[in-house]
Amino acid sequence: MAALSKISAFLKNAWAKEPVITVSVAIGILAAVAPLLSPYTKYSGMINRATPYVYPGEGFWPCCPRGAWPPPR
After folding, report:
1. DSSP H helical segments within 1-73, as ranges?
2. Rg of the chain's alpha carbons, rounded to an integer?
3. pTM for the full model?
4. How far is residue 59's CA from residue 61's CA, in Å, rounded to a whole number?
5. DSSP 73
6. Alpha-carbon distance 41 to 32, whole Å?
């Protein structure tokens, strides 16, 4: 419980001296923690696992011999 009172005293002191820096640090901490608490993180991970990294047929063009595309300048 003593640690909580020390943190509270520190935050009150920081708010009294430098409110802009205190708010910017709070926003930074919130920005770092928000993705961990967001449900969208779960679904974006599921989509990324389901999407193949290399698509079938990538790099195979029967109409063009290998090395013919892009055309030389």
Report:
1. 2-17, 19-37, 39-50
2. 27
3. 0.54
4. 6
5. -
6. 13
